[in-house]
Amino acid sequence: MDDFYAARDNTMPPLPWTNFAPPHTGRIVISETELAQTLTHELFHSLSLSKNQVVHKHSWAEQKDKTHVVVHQIKSCPPGSYTRIGCAKKNSYIGEFMKGFWGRDLNRWYNALVAEPERGQVVGMFRAGKYVNSYAATDPQEDLAESFSNFVFANKVDVRSLAGKKTYFFAGYPELLQIRGHVRSRLASLKTSQSTRLAFSIKDLN
Ligand SMILES: [Zn+2]
Fold this sequence. Notes:
The chain is 48% helix and 8% strand. By secondary structure, it is mainly alpha-helical.
């Protein structure tokens, strides 16, 4: 707490810049597409979990009896609207998505979360055609973000499958169609103007 007041009052001296080697060195090579897909996934988390979309609950991560807190939080949200962050608001992306596509899997996910709140993610729910990939099946929020990323990057969607319907879900929102067009045109111009791979060296950043 002392640090907090020192920082607020601007009385804390600046931290000295260390000159010892960082713990990780070497190159991380990631394709432009992988990078863009990851950023798009994260972008959608921030869009869909903002306070105008979800009524945030206090984090239960710090609580001792997590199961008790999770059960209480699930019960305190309108039925089927609980997300790990809080209760999905009416007409929110995550709320509509869970209502439209999660069905019985939502209860399976809640049960798994209550049984093992420490685990973080639920495994074993993936079925091809139902989820765009196995990570999407771990949590409704991850399903939403992965399906959105698929919506942005896929050229074709088979809407006969549930995974396809989840991907096509976003086309119902003009603002998301706009983001799709923007990301795709930026990526297309990157591909023509730069090398095919982006390379980062952690060492170079120090
Ligand atoms: Zn995620």
